[in-house]
């Protein structure tokens, strides 16, 4: 067995790194109060309780802090700490910039066809100006009538328009896509035939956001299991601006992220300033679950394609590394990944 580490020092180091990453103070307090509890107990007492498996009977010690303490006592660097250390020493601006530099494109953008403010060409030209190698056009699906969702017929017309533009814009590549509504039963709001022809499918929940956790979990897991879906868009649906505030949807995040990891789908980090979805706590969970992520602007106007750094900052703070980011892949690898979902 490796030499035991000092669990108190590890807990305090975690609290420090969380504070440096601007985490809410209640989350930091859990680690500081666990450290205080251990200090009171003394090393012998801690070791006894660890052996007896009774650490959690102490006030201030929960599942995460217990796991951390046990790892320290075994002489292992706690997983929670290791994840924070991976990013903790680097100033945020630098870490976020490194992630931004790794991105090759954007997988979520709207045009005039649904509720966006720019034509496909304007979006493409802006993306080229930003140095993107590709941009996925993801207008809304039929059910979202408030956003002028595209019928099958309109989407087919869009595919032709994209093919024509691509001939002109190469080597830049416009990719075909959709932000398809995830219906209440978890099915997707477009035909399988058409979804199968698209390069990238982002699926999002846009209705019944206040549903109970159980049906919402089943809805999301069903969508993740659908071979056509590649990216789960803005998973909690929260809105954070004062004008338009909406709490995150309720679902079993462990189960949803496990499904995403199992089916090799990406969890989107939505970079819109009013969304910034998922919240950091959930994003850390997704990273821990081994999920891939995509960092997308969900741009509804050309200038909004510049919002990627918002998402990069969160990715950095939550320990996302470039090899987990699908839009850090080169075009061919990205397309191979989405194709791999369809049997
Ligand atoms: Zn959406
Ligand atoms: Zn969108």
Task: Please describe what this structure looks like.
With 343 residues, the protein is of the alpha/beta class. The chain contains 13 helices and nine strands. The strands form two sheets. The chain has a seven-stranded parallel beta sheet. It has a two-stranded antiparallel sheet with strand order 6-7. Helix 1 runs antiparallel to helix 2 (25-52), helix 2 crosses helix 3 (63-73) and helix 9 runs parallel beside helix 10. The radius of gyration is 22 Å and the shape is elongated. The model has no long low-confidence stretch (mean pLDDT 94).
Task: Provide the fold topology.
Blueprint (H helix, E strand, L loop, with lengths): L6 H14 L4 H28 L10 H11 L5 H10 L3 H11 L2 E2 L13 H10 L4 E4 L14 H18 L3 E9 L10 H6 L2 E5 L8 H13 L5 E2 L6 E2 L4 E2 L6 H10 L3 E5 L9 H9 L3 E5 L11 H10 L13 H9 L4
Parallel strand pairs: 1-2, 2-3, 3-4, 4-5, 5-8, 8-9
Antiparallel strand pairs: 6-7
Helix pairs in contact: 1-2, 1-3, 1-4, 2-3, 5-12, 9-10
Bound molecules: zinc ion (ZN) (2 copies).
Strand content: 5-15%
Mean pLDDT level: 94
Tell the overall outline.
Answer: elongated
Main sheet makeup:
7 strands, parallel
Ligand identities = zinc ion
Helical content class: 40-55%
- Strands, total number: 9
Radius of gyration: 22 Å
Give the neighbour order of strands across the main sheet.
Answer: 1-2-3-4-5-8-9
| Helix vs. strand class | alpha/beta
The tally of helices reads: 13
